[in-house]
TrEMBL record:
<keyword id="KW-0694">RNA-binding</keyword>
<dbReference type="GO" id="GO:0003723">
    <property type="term" value="F:RNA binding"/>
</dbReference>
<dbReference type="InterPro" id="IPR036986">
    <property type="entry name" value="S4_RNA-bd_sf"/>
</dbReference>
<dbReference type="Pfam" id="PF13275">
    <property type="entry name" value="S4_2"/>
</dbReference>
<dbReference type="InterPro" id="IPR014330">
    <property type="entry name" value="RNA-bd_S4-rel_YaaA"/>
</dbReference>
<protein>
    <submittedName>
        <fullName>S4 domain-containing protein YaaA</fullName>
    </submittedName>
</protein>
């Protein structure tokens, strides 16, 4: 079951999202994880840390953890 993550703005950048869910503590860590190709946004591998995430976007990390932006 996907975890729902509420944001208060129109969108959130992928690197900020990873900090929000406490997966990383810095932008450098986020960059490393994102470049590993283990994150999918709406079913597609995403390697851009500035990728904007909007309401109803699905984020899957290592094909294990799934999050939905609300």
């Amino acid at each position: 079951m996907a975890q729902r993550v509420k944001i208060e703005t129109e969108y959130i950048q992928l690197q900020q999202f990873l900090k929000l869910i406490n997966l990383v503590s810095s932008g450098g860590e986020a960059k490393e994880i994102i470049q590993q190709g283990i994150i999918k946004v709406n079913g597609e591998v995403e390697i851009r840390r500035g990728r904007k995430l909007y309401s109803n976007d699905s984020i899957i990390i290592e094909d294990v953890d799934e999050f939905i932006i609300i």
